[in-house]
Description:
alpha+beta; Nuclear Transport Factor 2, Chain: A; five-stranded antiparallel sheet; globular
Amino acid sequence: MNVKSRHYLRADDIAAIEDGLAEQLGVTIDADSYERVEFDDSDREVVLVDGDPLVLYVDGEPFLTVQGCNAYPPERQVVTVDAGAVSFVSDGADVMRPGIVEADNDIDAGDLVAINEESHGKFLAIGRARTNGDDMVGDSGKVVDSLHHVGDELFEFAV
């Protein structure tokens, strides 16, 4: 990922990120610097929080990256998968119903979600829900489209 531009965010942009993440995920980020990064070879935009890529913009909406979720574990918008799904989700596969053990009931179809694993509580991926949270646990069907996962180019991005 080649950096196209980097710039520090203004106070109002920082407040929008912090307020949005607090409302959506129930997390409080307290940092000294916020720097927005755009890439030449990708339409992704991230925000470096104290130098680490912790926030990702998805369709103009700020959400935590996998690293961000592990640094600031979300209280809401979480989908938990079992051990059998970990290798698939970590490789970027979409999330299927049989692998889900729990999902936040407040998730609506179209929402961004953080995907974690039940054994250690580590976050593996970020995705977009295809269905409501109360309909995610079941026997068959794809319910979350993967957008960012452990090991992808954004996860490997270092400043």
